[in-house]
From TrEMBL:
Its main location: membrane. It comes from Rahnella variigena. InterPro entries: Efflux_drug-R_Bcr/CmlA, MFS, MFS_dom, MFS_trans_sf. The lineage of its organism: Bacteria, Pseudomonadati, Pseudomonadota, Gammaproteobacteria, Enterobacterales. This is Bcr/CflA family efflux transporter. SUPFAM superfamilies: MFS general substrate transporter. The keyword Transport applies.
């Protein structure tokens, strides 16, 4: 149902056609694509660049985290389209820099630069959904977008694994350059969802003060932190799995993509179910159920790895359950958080995205600093932070909100 405070039903119908959904899905997939596509190449990159390949993810997430805090108020002030165009240009330049890098320092720098642009996609994708839809409908739309955008983390590692087999890792970043260029062109057909009369009227400097208001909003922060801690756990798998599967268990890099993709299939399946569930149950109830299941799977993973039982099968099965819950957790927590602060959706989405994806910095640093060459470090990080996420969700009261 269209949010009566966002747009008229007719305007929303004209805006949210198939092209709008496809472009928005691609924008929201930018983060996954920018990282997942070169995961199979990370062990090779570490050897070629004589450095810690995990730092390329850390650098990307640092840029991603900081840039969103800038783009959020800018989008509330100037609209959504302008930051998207600027972001795609920055992403293209950063991708070229990565492709031309010759050492670990250079590629980490350009990964930061690449992230300055990539972050506009998922951040403004969420904000545009909130511009158009009410609480429950926004959760349903976000689940729909996750189903489509899940193609990227499935296709990314598979494509990257095949590319590293026949060419160098540099070509992966040239491919990202081409994809960024196509996305820049596609933005021509993306409509503006934040009309002039609904934009932030205060000065741009004043718009940044919205972050203080957001940080002091308990309802918004509760959902945001729940998502943040879950993503620390998720990034522990994303960052650590190439070395666990390829280096520790000896999985062929070309086959790694399939092991990664199975988790995304689970995410897609749960997202399909979630589209129906959001109309029957409160978002808070769905969130509590999802994080509880994820926490139980994470505990089994950590205990099994610690006891040296189950091998790679244990990791594949438990991570599949854990990762599949992302289909509910991301959609429900984002919709509920943004519903708490509808007048500053751009800044709210930016702060949420900054914490959500910036949390991966914690994962990659913990893996780099505490890694012992076994799956244990990845396992305990996943378990610890999923339990914290569950603790936050389970203490959240259910709020009955009528969609208008």
């Amino acid at each position: 149902m269209i949010d009566s405070q966002s747009q008229t039903p007719g305007a929303a119908r004209n805006t949210t056609g198939l092209s709008f959904i496809l472009i928005l899905s691609a924008l929201m997939a930018f983060t996954s694509l920018s990282t997942d596509i070169y995961l199979p190449a990370m062990p090779v990159m570490a050897k070629d660049l004589h450095g810690d390949a995990e730092l390329t993810i850390t650098g990307f997430l640092i840029g991603f985290c900081i840039a969103q805090l800038i783009w959020g108020p800018v989008s509330d002030h100037f609209g959504r389209r302008l930051p998207l165009f600027a972001g795609m240009v920055l992403f293209i330049v950063g991708s070229v820099g990565c492709a031309l890098s010759e050492n670990i320092g250079q590629i980490v720098f350009w990964r930061v630069f690449q992230a300055l642009g990539a972050c506009t996609g998922p951040m403004l994708g969420r904000a545009m959904i909130r511009d158009l839809f009410s609480r429950t409908r926004a959760a349903q739309m976000l689940s729909t977008l996750m189903i489509i955008m899940a193609i990227a983390p499935i296709a990314g590692p598979l494509l990257g694994g095949q590319m590293i087999k026949i060419t160098s890792w540099h070509s992966i970043f040239w491919l990202l350059t081409a994809i960024g260029t196509l996305m820049l062109i596609s933005l021509i057909w993306l409509p503006e969802t934040l009309p002039e009369e609904k934009r932030e009227k205060a000065s741009l400097a004043g718009a940044f003060r919205n972050y203080y208001t957001l940080l002091s909003n308990a309802q918004y922060m509760r959902f945001t932190l729940c998502l943040t801690f879950y993503y620390i756990a998720a990034y522990a798998f994303i960052t650590g799995s190439p070395f666990v599967y390829i280096s520790y268990f000896g999985v062929d890099p070309q086959h790694y993509g399939w092991l990664f993709a199975v988790n995304i299939v689970g995410l897609m399946a749960v997202s399909v179910v979630n589209r129906r569930l959001v109309h029957r149950y409160p978002l808070e109830t769905l969130l509590k159920c999802a994080v509880t299941v994820a926490a139980l799977a994470a505990l089994v993973l950590a205990l099994g790895v610690r006891m040296h039982t189950g091998g790679v099968v244990l990791i594949v099965v438990t991570v599949f359950i854990f990762f599949s819950m992302n289909g509910v957790i991301a959609a429900t927590s984002a919709a509920a958080a943004l519903d708490a602060v509808p007048n500053v959706a751009g800044s709210a989405s930016a702060l949420m995205g900054s914490l959500q994806y910036g949390s991966g910095i914690i994962s990659s640093l913990l893996l780099a600093l505490a890694g012992d060459g076994t799956p244990w470090t990845m396992a305990w990080i996943i378990a610890l932070f999923t339990l914290i996420s569950a603790g936050i969700a389970l203490t959240t009261r259910v709020v009955a909100v009528a969609d208008n």
